[in-house]
Design a protein that fits this description.
- This protein starts with a strand and ends with a helix.
- α4 crosses α12.
- The protein is α/β, with parallel strands linked by helices and about 575 residues long.
- The longest helix has 23 residues.
- Strands 9-8-20-21-22-19-23 form a seven-stranded mixed sheet. Strands 11-4-3-15-25-24 form a six-stranded mixed sheet, covered by helices on one side. A four-stranded mixed sheet has the order 14-13-12-18, with no helix packed on it.
- Belongs to the prenylcysteine oxidase family.
- InterPro entries: FAD/NAD-bd_sf, Prenylcys_lyase, Prenylcysteine_Oxase1.
- One of its GO terms (biological process) is neutrophil-mediated killing of bacterium.
Length: about 575
């Protein structure tokens, strides 16, 4: 018997030798004196199960024998019953797939070639196999918000600059693609409030802890405990996904990880949640707000779940990819041999068919317009930007419901020049010790300032000294004016700017969207309305690939299951 295999093709169900307790389940199939006995080493006249030498007592010990019990003599054990139930579930999925007449989809469309689109393309091929054609539509450059800018013949990160050490999907991509971690060049950080530094990092770990305790008491410990509790529960998603479980909506996914506590964290602010666990308002204003401004360009009024994801990235060790983080996207698409179509998708139309649905994707580029039919469509790009829908959906009844929300504009300016250290209270630039500056609510014209390194770092590379011309990355909500550039820099050679809608404006009043828009139409970016980061997008990509696979083969027991921790422990 054969069943669809997630890696492609079909998998032959093995006739393995069962354990002694599992033999009792076979008794209904055993026919004495016939060749129908399911156990290969069974003596059909006496049910003598010959075990390999050494399994029970060494090379010289005799293998035990077991007489075939009559039906009903011994009840099957619970683990054996669970094993049999899984086999029956797999058989049911096989029969359902056979009823459709096709074991796999023929064509899949992915809209967007950022980290979400490239990751879901990789995961879809893992599950459906290499023979499925996957078309990836991208109107811009591959990589999306993972991008670089060239300054003085060197490339620098202009998008997501680094990843947390617990970003397991990203770690897996880098290992599979044979990429390397970039060598880190250390630098000290500080928080600036527009007049002076409210917190300064030193080179001594114990002194840093003492300063935190002196200014804020044990608030930093309470913050760390709160973030670690959230992350410990969030890490369950990797175990769920390893066992093939998927979720049709963001609320279902969050509930499976942290039950109602995680769902409630999307409806209350970071400040409210931290005050409840004993973090002081001063620590929130000085430190927490600065971290959130640097990552989301938003304040402590944003929802607690998104804030916890951001604060986790500030506490752990960080890493990035040698040669540029965008190499992960291009590498995954090359690995899957996906067909990348440089075009803008304008419309997705549901075609009138019997059986499984069919979607017609219309697109346009410099060559004109085109269209094609697909069995599965994954939208891996925001569906609502600048108060307008990016893609039209036609032929759906009821109509496709798109979350109405706004995105936070973010501007990254790479300035090659001399920092004006006097603005930060250091008249002598040689004495300026910081490479990374975060800001509180003031000054309002920039959120963070970093002395950055190129994406390719040689063994002899060293960070520029404060009095030397360096490349600084300035993150701001709006393009910097000339007067603002003169405030931050004594002089500069060049300014390279990138502007995009980086993250949703996270609000406690925004409803949580669903991944499933229609039977085989999915929106990967739904999860970023709960939290937005590169690794969260990769988690959403894996979820959508599993969701498409499970829905295609009607394995509904793997979708939106309750009490998954108990189920996973049972399977282990």
């Amino acid at each position: 018997m054969r069943k669809p295999h997630p890696g492609g093709g079909t998998e032959k169900l093995p006739m393995t030798e069962p354990a002694p307790r599992e033999m009792r389940l076979m008794r209904a199939s055993c026919r004495r004196g016939t060749a129908a006995c399911p156990i290969r080493s069974c003596d059909q006249r006496g049910w003598k199960a010959e075990q390999p030498a050494g399994r029970w007592g060494g090379a010289g010990s005799p293998a035990p024998t077991r007489q075939c019990p009559s039906p009903g003599v011994l009840p099957p054990s619970l683990p054996a019953m669970a094993h049999a139930a899984r086999l029956l579930a797999a058989l049911a999925a096989l029969l359902a797939a056979a009823a459709t007449g096709d074991a796999r989809p023929s064509k899949i469309a992915v809209v967007g070639a950022g980290i979400g689109g490239s990751a879901v393309t990789h995961f879809l091929q893992q599950h459906f196999g290499p023979r499925v054609q996957i078309d990836v539509f991208e109107k811009g450059t591959v990589g999306g918000r993972l991008a670089t800018i060239s300054v003085n013949k060197q490339h620098y990160e202009s998008g997501a600059a680094s990843f947390h050490s617990l970003s397991l999907h990203m770690q897996g991509f880098v290992k599979q693609l044979g990429l390397r971690h970039r060598r880190e060049v250390g630098g000290r950080s500080a928080i600036f409030n527009g007049e002076n530094f409210v917190l300064e990092e030193t080179d001594w770990y114990l002194l840093n802890l003492f300063r935190l305790w002196w200014h804020y008491g044990i608030s930093f410990l309470r913050l760390q405990m709160w973030v670690e509790e959230v992350m410990e529960k969030f890490m369950r998603i990797y175990k769920y996904q390893a066992h093939g479980y998927a979720f049709s909506g963001v609320e279902e996914l969050l509930y499976s990880l942290g039950e109602s506590a995680f769902v409630n964290m999307t409806q209350r602010s970071v400040a409210e949640s931290l005050l409840q666990v004993g973090v002081t308002q001063r620590f929130i204003d000085d430190v927490v707000s600065a971290v959130l401004r640097a990552s989301y360009s938003q304040s402590a009024a944003m929802p607690a779940f998104a804030g916890a994801m951001s604060l986790a990235g500030a506490q752990g060790s960080l890493w990035s990819v040698e040669g540029g983080n965008k190499l992960v996207c291009s590498g995954l698409l090359k690995l899957t041999k996906a067909n990348v179509i440089h075009a803008t998708v304008t419309t997705v139309t549901l075609q009138p068919t019997e059986g499984k649905p069919l979607y017609r994707v219309r697109y346009e580029n410099e060559a004109g317009t085109g269209s094609d039919n697909y069995d599965i469509v994954v939208i891996a790009t925001p569906l609502h930007l600048d108060n307008s829908s990016t893609i039209a959906f036609e032929g759906f009844d009821p109509p496709i419901d798109v979350v109405q929300g706004s995105f936070q504009p973010t501007v990254v300016s790479l300035v090659h020049g001399y920092l004006n250290s006097s603005y930060f209270g250091f008249p002598d630039p040689k004495l300026f010790p910081f490479a990374n500056i975060l800001t509180t609510d003031f000054p309002s014209f920039f959120c963070a300032l970093d002395n950055i390194c190129p994406v390719n770092i040689s063994a002899s590379f060293r960070r520029k000294q404060p009095q030397e011309a360096a490349v600084w990355r300035v993150q701001s909500p709006q393009p910097l004016l000339r007067s603002q550039l003169k405030t931050l820099f004594r002089s500069y050679y060049s300014v390279q700017m990138a502007e995009w809608q980086a993250h949703p404006v996270h609000s406690p009043h925004t409803p949580l969207p669903r991944f499933t828009l229609h039977d085989q139409l999915f929106h990967l970016n739904a999860l970023e309305w709960a939290a937005s980061s590169v690794e969260v997008t990769a988690v959403a990509a894996k979820n959508v690939a599993l969701l498409a696979f499970n829905r295609w083969y009607q394995d509904l027991d793997k979708i939106d299951q309750k009490d998954l921790m108990h189920k996973v422990k049972t399977e282990l």
